[in-house]
Amino acid sequence: MSWTEERIATLTKMWEGGSTASQIADTLGGVSRNAVIGKAHRLGLKARPSPVKAKEEKKAPPPKKKAPAAAPPVAASPAAADAPAERKPAPSRPSAEPAPAAAPARPAPIPQPETESATDGEASAPSAAAPASAGHPLLEKREDLPKIVSYGPGGFLRQGPGDQQAPIPPAPPRRLVPAKPSAEIAEKTSLLDLNDRVCRWPMGHPGEPDFHFCGERVNPGFPYCVEHCGRAYQAQLPRGARRPPPPLPFGGPRVR
DNA sequence: CCCTGATTCGC
DNA sequence: GCGAATCAGG
What we know:
By secondary structure, the chain is mainly alpha-helical. It has helices at residues 5-17, 21-28, 33-43, 182-185, 226-235, and strands spanning 150-151, 157-158, 202-203, 212-213. Among the domains are: 5-43; 183-232, no CATH class. It has a two-stranded antiparallel sheet. The chain has a two-stranded antiparallel ribbon with strand order 3-4. It starts with a helix and ends in a 21-residue tail after the last helix. It binds a DNA duplex through α3.
């Protein structure tokens, strides 16, 4: 699979939307979780809550260097060892950029404590999801929560009721009631419940209130359970491989 | 063990 | 540029 504009757009939206790399990889299809992460970093968008990222010390950098199978540590003649095997001072900061250029003795001016704008500007979210829920009494409390965005298998944005702008409400005569999709699909497998081990065969149609996924244990090596594998791959048989019953002439082959 | 993102490095 | 392999924390 190649990174087309469309796939990159989906990746970017989902990444900024808070989806995990695995979910993005599943949605995109054809790429691994690592591929998604690698691409995301190459795109310049990163800095997301990482479980491993909670370490930022300037102490002795542990020589975490990968030595696959080469570079036998044979200490040959020391005279030839003129190469200063020093660790390259590359304190890879995640999002900060103090840029300690060549002026260590000169006290730098007061560094502006940038909040989180960070990075090189271009990496900032192009579509900073503005909290359109301001003003809504039922949604105000969600403002401090991480925005959760879900995407359909094709990468389309699935907006929850709270995300709808409701630009011109016709005239809601009745009072608003809190959406309770959980009542119908509480036991169903939602998009966010999908992973590599549950069948992702869609049940119903996206947008319908009870749309969900099969959720059965997958047929190992396939994205669907055994039952739906039959349907999925039968449906995807190439045209040439399908053998529609040859239309026999009326009355069958002529026999004389 | 599972998950997560970060990083490295051969291709 | 890409992504598997690897690392490392939760």
